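User: two proteins, same treatment. go.

Assistant:
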Amino acid sequence: MSGERGEGGGTEFQRILETLRTRIADGTYAIDSHLPAQRELAEELGVSRDTVQRVLRELNNEGWIKSRQGSGSRVVKSPTHLGNPKQEVPRVRATLGTFVARAFAQPTVRLDVFTLTSESLDAHIRLQAEHIRLKEITPERIELRILLPSESLDLPYPRMKKSSEDQSAQPEPDQSGRLQDRLRAITGRHTISLRAALRDLQTEGLVPSVRVEIRHVPLAPAFKLYLRPGVEALFGPYQVVERPILLDDGVEVEATDVLGLGSTLTRHVNDEGDPDSSGSVFMESMQAWFDSCWLLLADAP
C-alpha cells in the first residue's frame, strides 16, 4: 500500500480515484475520450505513477474505462452524472445528479435515502454545496434522512469469489472479512463527508437550518432508493457482478460484488391530480416502506 497521504488523512489512492471518477461523471473526460497519459496525471495530481496505475486499474475493474497497453485508457461509461437541472429531459431512465439538483432548487430540501454506501450521494451533495457557496441556489432548510445497512450485518456482498474448480468450497474468511471492512470504510468516509459538507453550510451562515440523520437497519440493500417526499422518487436495483477488487495493500482479489455507481435508475413522479396513477402509487408505497423501516427497524438516533 502506498504511504502517500492526502487531505483529511485519506490515502492518495482514494483521493485520485474520486477525482477521476468526478471528472468522468461531469464530462471533463467524456465517453469515448482518452484519459491523459499516466505521467501527465501523476505530475498534475502530485502523486507517483504507481498510485495512478492502481487507480486506473480500479476504474477499469469498475467499468468506467478500458485500458489497453500501448493505447492508454479510454472512457467507456459514466455511471453517475453530475447533472444540471436545465438539461433535464423527460424520460423514464433518470440520473441522480438532476434529481438532487431539483431538490436543492427548492426553498426546503427534503431527501430520504436508502442505499448501500452513500458514495454516489456524497458527490452530488458536495456539488450542490458549491452551488450554494456561489449563490447560484439559496435553500433555507435542508432535511436529509439516510438509511444504511447495520454495520454488524454480515452482507452477501462483497465476498471472495468461489473457486471455479470447487463451487462448494468456502472463500477464505479473512479475505471476505477484509472486503466487508473495505465496504464499511467507504461508507464511513462518504457519510462523514456529506454530513460535514451540509453542516458547514449552516456554520457558515449560508443555510439557516440543516438536519442530517443517519440510521442503520438490519437489511442488505437489493436496491437504492432516493425520495423527495410527496414529489418524486428514483429507484434502482443493485446488479450483482463478479469483478476484481483492489484492497488497500495493493492485493487484487476476485469477488462477487455490486456496482452501485452503475445502477440503472427509474424516476417515479407523484401525480397530485391522480392518486391512482402508477407514479403516485409507487411514491406512496415506497415512502410508507421507508418510514416504517426508519421508525421500526432502524437503530435509535
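Protein 2:
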Amino acid sequence: MSTDNGPVITSYAKARTRTVTAGDVTYAYRELGPKGGIPVVFFVHLAANLDNWDPRIVDAIAKDHHVIAFDNRGVGDSTGKVPDSIEAMADDAVTFINALGFEKVDIFSFSLGGMVAQELTIQHPELVRRLILTGTGPAGGKDIDRVAGTTYYDLLRATLTRSDPKEFLFFNRNTTGKRAAAAFVKRLEERTEDRDTSVSVKAFRTQLKAIKRWGRSTPVDLSAISAPTLIANGDHDRMVPAILSEDLHRRIPGSELIIYPDSGHGGIFQFHDKFAPSAVEFLSH
C-alpha cells in the first residue's frame, strides 16, 4: 500500500499508474482521494482498461473516499492471461485486494465488472462492505449469453462509421444519446499522459467467452448477499437489458434500484450528474 504523504490527488486524470505484484501477476492500478477508511475498488467493463472510467464519477467519489481502479489479470498493463471464467476473474480481484493489504472494501462495478463483483461478494462476504452494481446482470440471467452477438454487431457499425464502439454499445442512437456519447468519449480523453495499454483482441474474446459461460450457468442464490447494494442501469440497455437489473433487485435483499430514462448501457455515464451524487450518498453510510 502506498505510504506517500504528498498532496491528496482527487482528479483521476492526474492519478499516476502504480503496480503491485502478487504471485506471478503484476497488477496495474491507480489510486486517488484521501487515504484511510474503507477504499472503493472499481471493477471495469468488457474490453476496458484504466482509461475507461468516467472521470466525472470517479472524481466525485474520490472527493471524500480512497478510490482504487485496477486492471485485472491480462488486462491493460497488468501481466498474465485473462481467465475464461468470471469465477477466476473474481479470484484474481481478491488476490489484488489482498496484495494491497485491505481486509474490507466497497466495490463499484460496471457491466462485466458487476458479474465479477457478484461472484466475489458471494465467495467472500466478509470482504465487501457496500456494493454498487451498474449495467450488469446475474449468472444464468436471460439473454446475457447474447452479449457477444450485440458487441460484434456494434463493433462493425462503429468501424463502418469510424466511431468509438462505446458510442453504439453504451448509448441510444437518438439525438440525446449521440450527444451524451460524444461528451462521454471526450471526457475519457482528458487524461493525456501515462495512458494504459489497449486490451488485446485475444483478451477481449476471452472475456466474451467468460460472459457467455456466465450467462449459461446455473443461477446462484443472490439472497446470500448481505452487503447493502445499489443497482443502476439505463432503460434501453441493449447489452445487459434493464430487466436483468430488476431481477438483481428482486433477488438481493434490501437492494436499491435506479433506472435512468431514455438511456442505454451507459446510463450512469449519460446521467453522471445525477448518478454520481447518488453513489456518493450510498457509499457515505
